[in-house]
Design brief:
Low-confidence stretches of chain A: none
Largest sheet of chain B: 2 strands, antiparallel
Largest interface: A-B, 14 and 11 residues
Largest sheet of chain A: none
Oligomer: heterodimer
Shape of chain B: elongated
Low-confidence stretches of chain B: none
Helix content of chain A: over 70%
Number of helices of chain B: 23
Number of helices of chain A: 3
Number of strands of chain B: 2
Strand content of chain B: under 5%
Order of helices and strands of chain B: HHHEEHHHHHHHHHHHHHHHHHHHH
Number of strands of chain A: 0
Distance between the termini of chain B: 112 Å
Chain lengths: 101, 620
């Protein structure tokens, strides 16, 4: 097993997440795609921590922090989506283009 | 005392200038209560002073060498401009003529401008003219002659445009200024070109230089042609002659001055420059050609006019053409004599016709008639003016024409023919005008026409006396040839041409054989002459059209291309702002996308060195 495979898998996951972030029309799915991005990052951190820093495992500490922060961010994100939904009665991203030029 | 007068003769132009300045406070806007008349009286006094001063100096300078004065004006970087004055009997004599004629014109104007409030402007401009002309005669430097000529051009503009509420006056003043200005600008080119060849602008030095000068013939020909162009405009020569016709819109008293003296200012410069012209035979022949065309054309046009003032203005052009011929054939003395006799004769004619116009209102000779029995004074003045102008033996014009013609008798006999034809034609046109005004039946406009008041009659009579005495004066100064040395063939030809012209004209216009108004067998030719060869149309079709088109074109280029380029920059930045703002689409996902693009492009650029070459090798 090599480090590269983990990294490639994480990159693929990141790209899938990006694709989801950019193309999803549902705001909740955008948040889900952001979770995918964060998890891809976590995969990277874990892989690096395992292969390059197996003694101090700072990567794992980072990962713990990222998971924590991601949970908080998802909560706030969902709160925002809910707040918008209450006003506009929809979670379609295409409808949220009020702040233009 | 005599020395003092001689030393201070340069004050003569200053008197007139001071008179001109002192007249200004009586402008209606400044002294509002007492009327403008003192302006005229002050000018009269100062002109009289100038006349007396120059007349006293004239005997002192007679038979003496010219007295030269040089006043430094500007000395800068190797260019030394000094106002050179030459006090010779010639220049002082010219000043006597100028101040004398101006004095008479100003007395005439007191009567003529009786019902006009614009005396301050009128008299200050007459003063300016007198000052300008006197300084022109004193001035011995081509450069300062040019300066004075330009000042006089401006003066002409203001004086012709005196009654500026009349539309024809405005266009006449405009044409007078621009036409003379064009000539003056050519003169400036010549003046500047002469400096690089001769290194001096002093007439005496120029004459000295011309005797031994070794110059490029093409260069000196071009310079001389430019020097001719200035006087050509000033003297109203073809094709720069229309302004004199339109300048007849100005008041009559100023016309007296202009017809007699101002047009001669160009001739004066021409005569002074004669040594330079002798360097270039082509310039001399061009001068003769201009003179011939103007003399014949002008006297023909004068015959076909119906305006009393314009009849005379074309004769002025014709006589100035004779002066051109005289200078072109190196006959300075004949030219000066011609200028002198023409000044007196022409001034008398204008005074007489001005007196007629003042009481008969119309200037149309076809509406006048039968004034002889009621206006004998004006009539006699007209006759004497005519005789003084054309070749009739005892009077001045004859001697001038005789001197000119006998100088040409052996060398260029065809020019004698031209002079005789011009003399006959002028005799014809002046007699025609006399017959139409004073002869024949009285018409409605001239039914009740009293003689003018003494202010107009007095200068007319004084000038009549001068014109009659001119031959005696000339003889006492031994300027006339004795009868034994006169070329009798020329003299007889001149006399016969005058008699011929006068008698044919009086038979046609005083006799009842030919119905009036006279129709020429060929209507187009009559119109061609009456409309001055359609010169206004020619100007309009050539120079005016060209300049107008070019100025419109440059205006369009400036307006659309130059301005357009600069405006385009602004327009592009506005448009780019207006169109680029749509990049702020308001969609979060689009922002994310651009973020991603930015990061990946930047990442590609940073890491290009590690994989870019490999990629190239892979593809190509």
């Amino acid at each position: 097993m090599q480090l590269q495979y983990f990294l490639l898998l994480a990159a693929a996951l990141f790209c899938i997440g990006i694709y989801g972030v950019i193309t999803s029309r549902n705001a909740v799915r955008v948040l889900m795609s952001i979770e995918l991005l964060l998890n891809a990052v976590n995969l990277n951190l874990m892989a690096f921590s395992n292969y390059l820093d197996s003694t101090a495992i700072k990567g794992q500490v980072f990962t713990v922090f990222v998971i924590t922060v991601a949970a908080a961010e998802a909560a706030v994100g969902l709160a925002i989506v809910l707040a918008i939904y209450r006003n506009r009665d929809t979670v379609d991203m295409e409808q949220f283009n009020l702040l233009k030029w | 005392m005599t020395n003092f007068l001689l030393e201070t003769v340069w004050l003569v132009p200053c008197y007139a200038l001071i008179g001109g300045l002192l007249a200004l406070p009586w402008s209606p806007g400044i002294i509002k209560r007492t009327g403008p008349r003192p302006a005229g009286y002050i000018n009269l006094v100062l002109t009289f002073l100038a006349f007396v001063h120059s007349a006293c100096v004239l005997p002192i300078t007679w038979n003496h060498l010219p007295h030269e004065i040089s006043i430094p004006w500007l000395n800068i970087a190797g260019l030394n401009l000094s106002i050179d004055l030459e006090i010779s009997s010639l220049s002082v004599g010219a000043m006597v003529v100028i101040t004398g004629l101006n004095l008479l014109a100003q007395i005439f104007a007191i009567g003529y401008m009786e019902m006009d409030w614009g005396w301050a402007r009128f008299y200050s401009l007459l003063g300016l003219f007198e000052a300008g002309l006197c300084s022109l005669t004193l001035c011995n430097s081509l450069f300062f002659s040019y300066v004075v000529l330009e000042v006089l051009t401006l003066g002409t503009y203001l004086l012709v445009g005196l009654w500026f509420s009349q539309p024809l006056v405005v266009t006449g003043a405009r044409d007078a200024f621009l036409t003379k200005r064009v000539g003056d600008l050519f003169l400036l080119m010549g003046v500047l070109a002469l400096w690089s060849q001769a290194g001096t602008w002093n007439y005496t030095d120029l004459a000295e230089w011309a005797t031994t000068a070794n110059v490029n013939p093409t260069l000196i020909t071009l310079t001389c042609l430019a020097l001719i162009a200035g006087p050509m405009g000033k003297c109203a020569q073809f094709p720069l002659h229309l302004w004199l016709d339109e300048a007849m819109e100005g008041p009559v008293p100023s016309t007296i001055l202009r017809n007699s003296v101002v047009v001669a200012s160009g001739a004066w410069v021409l005569i002074k420059l004669q040594p330079v012209f002798s360097l270039s035979p082509m310039a001399s022949s061009a001068m003769v050609a201009i003179g011939v065309v103007t003399a014949v054309g002008g006297s023909l046009i004068a015959i076909a006019q119906i305006d009393i003032k314009r009849c005379l203005s074309y004769s002025v052009s014709a006589y100035m053409g004779l002066v051109f011929i005289a200078v072109g054939t190196q006959q300075d003395e004949a030219a000066l004599l011609l200028v002198l006799t023409h000044a007196l004769g022409s001034a008398l004619l204008v005074m007489s016709t001005g007196a007629i116009v003042w009481n008969s209102i119309t200037q149309d000779v076809s509406l006048l008639g039968g004034l002889w029995s009621r206006r004998p004074v004006s009539g006699i003045a007209y006759i004497v003016g005519t005789l003084g102008l054309i070749g009739v033996p005892p009077l001045g014009g004859f001697w001038a024409l005789l001197q000119l013609a006998s100088g040409l008798w052996t060398t260029q006999p065809w020019l004698v023919g031209v002079i005789i034809v011009v003399n006959a034609l002028t005799a014809f046109s002046l007699t025609r005008e006399f017959s139409l005004i004073f002869g024949g039946q009285s018409k409605q406009m001239s039914d009740r026409s009293p003689e003018v008041s003494w202010q107009m009659a007095l200068p007319m009579m004084i000038l009549l006396g001068f014109t009659l005495h001119l031959p005696l004066v000339l003889q006492s100064l031994s300027l006339l040839p004795t009868w034994a040395t006169v070329n009798k063939d020329v003299a007889l030809l001149l006399i016969w041409s005058s008699i011929f012209g006068c008698s044919i004209s009086s038979v046609i216009y005083l006799g009842n054989v030919i119905p009036k108004p006279i129709r020429f067998p060929s209507k187009p030719i009559q119109n061609l002459l009456a409309y001055d060869f359609y010169t206004p149309k020619l100007y309009k079709m050539s120079i005016v059209l060209g300049v107008d088109m070019i100025s419109k074109l440059t205006d369009m280029i400036d307006r659309f291309i130059i301005d357009g380029i600069v405006n385009l920059v602004g327009l592009v930045s506005i448009l780019s702002g207006e169109s680029l703002k749509y990049s702020t689409s308001g969609r979060t996902q689009f922002y994310t996308f651009t973020l991603l693009i930015g990061v990946s492009v930047l990442g590609m650029l940073v890491t290009w060195q590690y994989w870019g070459d490999n990629l190239f090798n892979l593809i190509f």
